[in-house]
Structure formats: C-alpha cells, structure tokens
User: Which sequence fits this backbone?
C-alpha cells in the first residue's frame, strides 16, 4: 500500500509532533482499511439490534441480513464505556536504537499514540501508564479529545531512563483496575519472565483482555561475526567485551529461552503476544495487531 | 658455533613470509564496536570466558600459521644438527680437510683392493655430498700441507712417512684459517698413526673441531714378513733370514736369494700362524755389486716386506788390533777368540813401536793394552784421521780426550768381586758374578763418560767416552786387560764374559753404520757443512742426491744405495720401509670425552650407507612432522570458529 510505504518508521520519524504523527498513521491506516470489517478494539459480542434509519450502513451485519432478510447491527460489550489501558515501558532499554532508526521507545509511543487516537475516536476510554522501575506516570481513563491531547502530551514528554521492572509495574496497574477492559502493553519485556507472567496473570485475574506488543530493534537480534563489541548495558551501565560470534550465540539462545517462556506464559493466560520490530512499517504493525483482535 | 646448520641457507630469507602472515592477521582483526545495548541479561560470565578463549584460539591460530610457514621454509633449507659430525661433512659452510694415510701399510690388499685405493674411492663418495668443491682440501705428503681438491687429484703412492711436526702444523693452519673445518681421517690406524691423531685432536684448543675417523682396519689381518738378513761370509756364504708370520692364515712360500740378478734355487716353506724362525738360504755367489736380496714369494696381503736386502761387505768381519806386550796380551787374544761366535774376527797384535798408520786404518777395533810405548801408539791413533768408524779401547793411563783426567791409584786394597751392572743396555743382564777370586789392586779414576760397568765402590771399571767427531768409539778401562799386576782378571771366570760383552758393545757401535735408513723419513746429513759434497747413487748407479748444504734429506724408494762421502771410503746403505709398518699393530682412535660431540669413528661401508640416505635422517624428518602437527592444529583451531561463523551469517 502506498500509504503503508509512506508510513515506515524512517518516513514518520522526522515528524516531531507526536499528535501529527499518530493522526497521520491512523488516517493512513484507515484510508487503506475502508473495506475492513473491523471497527474499534472491542472484544466481546453483546447482541443484535435492528438497524435504524440514518445509521451508517457499514454497521449492518450482512451475514445476519442474509439469514433473516432483515437489517441488524452487531453490538459489542464494550461499545459502551470500554476502557483501554495503555501501559508503555519507558526504561532505559527502550531507548535502544540502531543507526538511522527510531528508538524502541519512540516507536512504542508512536504506536501508543496511534492506538489512543483510534480508541478515542471510537469513544473508548483510554488510560495511559508509563513505567520503568515503577509506574511513573498515570492518566485515568477518559474518552474525550482532551484526554487524547493529554495522552499525546504526556507521551511526548516521556524519556527512557532507569531500569526495567515490568512485572511489578503490571502488577501495580492491575491492582488499580476495577472494571473489565483491555490492557495494551508496549515493552521490550527485558525483565524476569516469571515476574512478567505473574503480572499478566494479575491482569487476567482482573478480567483484562491483554495485548502484549513486544517491541524490538533488529540490531538486538543480529551481531556481525567479523566484529568485536563492547556492549554497555543501557540500564545497569555494565560493560562487556564480546566477539560477534559469542554475542550472537548467547543472544540467540537467551532470546529464544526468553521468548519461549513468554509465549508459553501468554498462551497459558490466553494473552496475545505480538513481536514488532522497529524497522516494520507502522501500518503493518497496526494491521497485524488488529488482525489478532477479531473484534476491533 | 651454532648447533643447527642448513644445507640451503639461502632459503632462510623465506622466513620473511612468516611476517606476511602476521600482517594479514593484523589486517583481518575485527574492529571493536562500542554499542550501548538494551540489556546484558543474556550474557553471563560464560560469554566472557568464551570470548577470551576465542581470542586465545585466534592467537594460537596466528602462531600456528606463522610456524607452519616457517616450517615449510625450514624444510627447503635442509636443517641438520651441527654436532653430528657426519652432517657437518655436507654443510656448505664447512671446509673439508681430507687426510689419507700415506704410509706403506696402506698397501695391504683386502679383497683384491689395497686399503689406499679403498680410501680413494671413499673420498669420491664424500666429495659427492658437496656441491661446492672449492671447500674440499686434500693433504699432499709431498708438500706436507693441504691443497684444493680437483677432480683429477691423486696422491702419491702409499709409501710415505708421517712427519709429525709438519702434519701438526698443516692441521693447525687448517683450523686457524677456516671457520668450520671438518677433518676426515682415512687410515688403517696403526698404533703410531693413532697416537698422532689422538694427541693432536685431544688438545683443548681443537676439542670442538669436527673429526670423522674412517677406519680402514682390515678384517682378520695377516702377514708374512722377511725381517733382517745377516750374511755369514766364508767359503759358502749364507743368508740368515728372519722369517715371521702373523695372523691366522697358513701360507706356502718360497725363498730365494738374488745376487746380481742371479737367483738361487727357491726353497719352499709353509708359514703357519705365529711363525718366527731363522732360515738359512745359501748365497749363490759373491756379489760384484756388494749387495743382494732375499725374496719371498707368497700371497700375503702386504708385499713390501717380502724382500730383504743385505750388504755383503763390512759387517761381520771385524779386525782387532791389540797394541801391547805380546805375552801379556795373550789371554786377551784367547778371550777374544772364545767370545766371538757366529762372526768373523781377525785378531792381530803389535807392539807399540811397530804400530803403524796403515794398521790403524785397517783395524776396526784397536785395543791399547798398556805397556811402554803405549803413549806413542796413542799419539798415532789420535793424529790419524779415521777413514771408517773405529773403536779404541784403552786399558792404560793414556786418554784420547783432553778433558779426561786420570789418577792412577796404587796401593788400594783388593776390592770385592761383586760387580754391579750399570746403565748400558748391552751390559744389562750381565751376570753379577759372585766371584770371590776377582781382585782389582790398582785402577784409574776420573774418567769422564758413560760408565758401562762399575766396581763395588762405584768407581767405573769400563767407561764410554764420547767423541765429538763421532768417527771413533772410545772405551776406557780403569785397569789393564791381560796379564798384569793390577788385577787378576785373566785368572778368573769373569774374564771371558767380560771381554765378550766389551766386544759386543764395540761391535754394536760399529754396526750403527749398518742401521738402515727408513724410506721417506728425514735423515740427518752427517756431512753437513763439509767443503765437498756427498753423492748418493741408486742401485742402478745413477746419482740421485748430491748432499752439501742440506741439513737433512730423504729417500723415497727402498733399495741399496751407495754413499760416496768426501775423503772417505764409499759404503752401501740399505734403505728400507719402516719396520713398524709391517707389524699390523692396529688400534682405532679412542675418542676423548672432550671430543665426543664433534668426533665420530665409522667404517667406509657405514659412510656409504649414510651418503645414500643422508637426507632421510631424523633431523630431516622433524620439520615434516612439525608441519603435519601444525596443519592439524590449524584445522582444529579454525574449525571451531568456522562452524560458528556459518551459523550466524
């Protein structure tokens, strides 16, 4: 799609204004998705109601029409006051970026901004929480435009720092959630997987439909075997001197192990886990996310 | 001196290529990238350890590659251990000094070839080891020095003597003028040769010089020898031939005498191992030439000692002139006649007044037995220049030498009869007569010379007085011989044995003229400085030497030579090959401890085997083994890295 190619991170990155960036992405996505049956991020079917005159014909469930020869609209549970919680990781590791590429945090917050834009537009309440070692920023859920601006403003002001404590942050957020809703987690999940899973379990316990977006940079997966690396941990400051082959071997093994644990845990909890790399076009990323959600 | 040498040292420049390996390694070293990374949780200590071990492996790989390159180069250079004397023979940096034993014993025939020829063939094998023949030197006995080897180098025949001082000088020059001398000694190693080599090379200053002894000692050596020949003159002259046989072979032989090319009928003998006998061979005729030879026909390996020459005149016939009272001298005459056995002795007596110059010239031994007029006789003797070697025995108070003082003691009590032997070898074993009846009443003291026999009070009874001219033998007796009041010699059993010993002493001195000259050895010119030259004629009568100002000379071929000195009667001289050469007294050199690392003793067969396979010695194989090892290490070290590289491309 022409829009999608335009909406590659390297094309969007120069746009400094996050709101502008997010609107661009969303509008670009919607422009290419006019035939998509998916609307919003709702999860559960509620009921059918008769189609009222003047309503958009896009909302008619044509399958029902074919069966009954009458026009009905499909209603979801969250069409009314569905709360979506955006949880974004702002630890130092999210600041990683390869040359000429957006950092993971930039990508994540752009993604978060885009999602918030979509949700607010469909009148869903959106909250925002940013965390590193603890939750540093929290915006309670609202569905107004002002909320959107606030979210964008907060996202704009954030900078990656400190170490990751993903599990405890999720757990803390889960304690504050009273209603059923959707939680979208944007992180690189470079924390103890057991603690992360425990946090996710708490979220599921709180009847949250969890979507985990695992943000990674391609450089984090590949090392050149003809080079040596002096790796500096962006969170702890620890330094290691490794050759490319050793680094690649250990990273691959570690990531594989980590991914397995995460995937097993998420599968067990029926949580969608999607991996997004920062070289992927935003549109593709969002589409994948939406495809994973049948009722959006 | 370095321990390792190289056959092709020019290839060592190739070691510079090992530096290329290092440069390539440095160029291919991975650059270090500083990378801020999201998390290092996946990299534990084992990652660091692995990185370190990988670095070490890379270093090892670099070293292995450098060593591999070096080994390939080293293989081309052909390394060998320099303390291996055999390998030093074909070190192009060394100078080979080849010495072939030139002595006659090298004529020994073994399996149809002489030891000398065998030595020459061995030299050819040695020369083949070298590409550069400019550094090969062969000893020339003619000039007593080493000269450069050429393809047509040939030595003189093996009939030379070893002049030890000149040989040592040549060896020393070789050591001092070259950096890496290697001596190759080819010899049958008779004891004298071995002693020379052991003495020279065991000196500290030459202890590190490389010496290869090539032993040509024959297996089961044996030989039949004709030693000395004595002629018994008379109506039926005979040649008394001393025949010996050494070794374990029985050998038939025939002997014949050759006089003026006329041969006596051959007499056959069988020489058993250990034969040592005297055989009498009749001489067919009196030689006009004055000499002859006994020839033995037999198939022994050494043939130069199968001919023995003899001179027919002036040996066993001795003329004795006794000057003194005839009656008093009678016992002396009788004792002389009884003492002389197996030889011809002509005894004549003269009174002092009748003694003439002609008689003085004619006699071989003159005994002045005292009496009045003895001094007159002594005066004639001293004023007459001797034409030949003579012996003067004085038994009176007059002496010939000016510095001899004499005191005639009288009135001395009779002395004991025990007469101890003194220094003279001829007098050794003289029975110490326990003769109670022997009395010496008066004797002379103060005679200066070599005491041959002394009285009980250590007074010399019989003294050999040295003559500075050397043409006369002087023996002075402290007491007269014959009938005298000074002693009772002639009345005792002591008398005849004493006269016999005295005669033997004199004859031994006289026979020095008959001591043969040795082929190749330097002979002192006893006429050196004489105003007229001396001619030496070969057996054919041709002059081969004219001696005048030469202090010494040598003759290269055995035979009977005629010496014509000025103002003297000519005489014949037997020139023979050194008798030591026929003794077969083999003794291979013992390598001293200080020479152990640089010297070796081998046989020509071992050398030939070495020349054939010298490139396959252990020192040649070692670089190949190391190369294989390094290749294996290269694969081992490289494989680990390459395997991981492939997975992560």
Assistant:
């Amino acid at each position: 799609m022409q829009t999608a190619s335009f909406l590659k991170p390297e094309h969007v990155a120069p746009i400094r204004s996050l709101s502008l960036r997010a609107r661009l992405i969303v509008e670009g996505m919607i422009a290419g998705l006019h035939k998509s049956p998916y609307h919003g991020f709702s999860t559960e079917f509620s009921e059918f109601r008769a189609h009222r005159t003047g309503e958009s014909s896009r909302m008619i469930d044509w399958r029902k029409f074919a069966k009954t020869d009458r026009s009905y609209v499909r209603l979801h549970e969250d069409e009314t006051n569905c709360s979506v919680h955006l949880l974004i990781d702002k630890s130092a590791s999210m600041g990683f970026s390869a040359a000429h590429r957006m950092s993971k945090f930039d990508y994540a917050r752009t993604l978060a901004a885009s999602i918030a834009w979509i949700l607010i537009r469909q009148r869903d309440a959106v909250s925002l929480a940013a965390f590193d070692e603890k939750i540093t920023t929290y915006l309670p859920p609202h569905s107004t435009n002002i909320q959107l601006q606030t979210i964008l403003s907060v996202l704009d002001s954030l900078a990656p720092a400190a170490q990751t404590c993903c599990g405890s942050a999720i757990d803390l957020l889960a304690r504050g959630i009273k209603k059923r809703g959707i939680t979208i987690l944007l992180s690189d999940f470079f924390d103890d997987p057991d603690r992360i899973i425990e946090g996710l379990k708490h979220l599921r316990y709180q009847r949250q439909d969890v979507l985990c977006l695992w943000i990674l940079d391609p450089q984090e997966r590949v090392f050149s075997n003809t080079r040596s690396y002096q790796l500096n941990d962006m969170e702890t400051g620890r330094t290691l001197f490794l050759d490319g082959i050793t680094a690649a071997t250990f990273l691959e093994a570690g990531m594989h192990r980590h991914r397995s644990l995460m995937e097993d845990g998420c599968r067990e909890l029926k949580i969608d886990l999607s991996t997004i790399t920062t070289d992927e076009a935003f549109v593709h990323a969002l589409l994948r996310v939406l495809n994973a959600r049948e009722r959006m | 001196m370095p321990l390792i040498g190289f056959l092709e040292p020019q290839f060592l420049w190739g070691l510079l290529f090992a530096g290329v390996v290092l440069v390539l390694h440095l160029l291919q070293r991975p650059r270090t990238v500083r990378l801020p990374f999201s998390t290092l949780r996946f990299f534990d200590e084992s990652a660091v350890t692995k990185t370190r071990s990988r670095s070490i492996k890379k270093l090892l790989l670099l070293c292995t590659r450098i060593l591999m390159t070096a080994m390939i180069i080293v293989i081309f250079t052909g390394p060998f251990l320099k303390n291996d004397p055999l390998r030093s023979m074909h070190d192009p940096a060394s100078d080979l000094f080849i010495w072939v034993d030139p002595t006659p014993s090298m004529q020994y025939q073994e399996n149809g070839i002489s030891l000398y020829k065998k030595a020459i063939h061995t030299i050819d094998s040695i020369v083949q080891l070298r590409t550069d023949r400019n550094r090969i030197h062969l000893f020339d006995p003619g000039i007593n020095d080493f000269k450069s080897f050429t393809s047509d180098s040939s030595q003189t025949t093996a009939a030379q003597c070893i002049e030890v001082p000149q040989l040592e000088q040549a060896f020393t020059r070789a050591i001092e003028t070259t950096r890496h001398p290697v001596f190759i000694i080819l010899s049958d190693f008779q004891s004298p040769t071995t002693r020379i080599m052991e003495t020279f090379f065991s000196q500290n200053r030459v202890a590190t010089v490389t010496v290869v002894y090539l032993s040509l000692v024959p297996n089961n050596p044996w030989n039949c020898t004709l030693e000395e020949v004595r002629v018994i003159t008379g109506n039926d002259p005979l040649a008394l031939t001393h025949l010996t046989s050494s070794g374990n072979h029985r050998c038939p032989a025939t002997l014949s005498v050759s006089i003026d090319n006329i041969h006596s009928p051959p007499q056959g003998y069988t020489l058993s191992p250990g034969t040592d006998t005297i055989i009498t061979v009749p001489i067919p005729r009196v030689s006009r030439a004055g000499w002859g030879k006994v020839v033995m026909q037999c198939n022994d390996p050494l043939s130069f000692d199968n001919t023995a020459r003899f001179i027919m005149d002036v040996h066993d016939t001795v003329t004795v002139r006794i000057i003194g009272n005839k009656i008093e001298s009678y016992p002396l005459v009788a004792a002389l006649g009884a003492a002389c056995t197996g030889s011809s002795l002509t005894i004549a007596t003269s009174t002092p007044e009748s003694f003439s110059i002609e008689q003085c010239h004619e006699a071989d031994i003159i005994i002045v037995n005292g009496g009045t007029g003895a001094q007159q006789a002594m005066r004639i003797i001293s004023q007459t220049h001797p034409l030949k070697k003579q012996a003067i025995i004085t038994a009176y108070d007059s002496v010939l030498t000016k510095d001899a003082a004499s005191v005639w003691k009288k009135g001395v009590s009779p002395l004991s009869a025990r007469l101890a032997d003194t220094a003279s070898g001829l007098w050794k074993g003289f029975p110490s007569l326990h003769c109670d009846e022997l009395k010496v009443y008066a004797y002379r003291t103060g005679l200066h010379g070599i005491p041959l026999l002394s009285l009980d009070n250590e007074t010399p009874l019989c003294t050999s007085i040295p003559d500075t001219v050397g043409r006369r033998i002087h023996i002075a007796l402290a007491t007269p011989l014959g009938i005298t009041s000074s002693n009772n010699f002639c009345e005792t059993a002591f008398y005849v044995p004493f006269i016999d010993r005295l005669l033997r002493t004199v004859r031994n001195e006289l026979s020095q003229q008959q001591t043969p000259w040795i082929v190749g050895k330097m002979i002192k010119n006893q006429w050196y400085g004489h105003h007229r030259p001396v001619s030496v004629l070969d057996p054919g009568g041709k002059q081969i030497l004219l001696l005048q100002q030469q202090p010494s000379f040598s003759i290269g071929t055995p035979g009977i030579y005629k010496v014509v000195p000025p103002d003297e009667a000519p005489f014949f001289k037997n020139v023979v090959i050194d008798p030591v050469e026929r003794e077969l007294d083999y003794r291979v050199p013992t390598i001293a401890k200080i020479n152990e690392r640089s010297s070796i003793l081998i046989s020509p067969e071992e050398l030939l085997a070495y020349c054939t396979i010298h490139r396959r010695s252990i020192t040649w194989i070692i670089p190949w083994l190391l190369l294989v090892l390094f290749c294996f290490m290269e694969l081992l070290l490289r494989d680990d890295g390459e395997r991981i590289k492939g997975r992560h491309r």
Notes: Chain A touches chain B through 40 residues (CB under 8 Å). The longest strand of chain A covers residues 208-216. Residues 104 and 135 of chain A are 18 Å apart (CA to CA). The two ends of chain A are 21 Å apart (CA to CA).
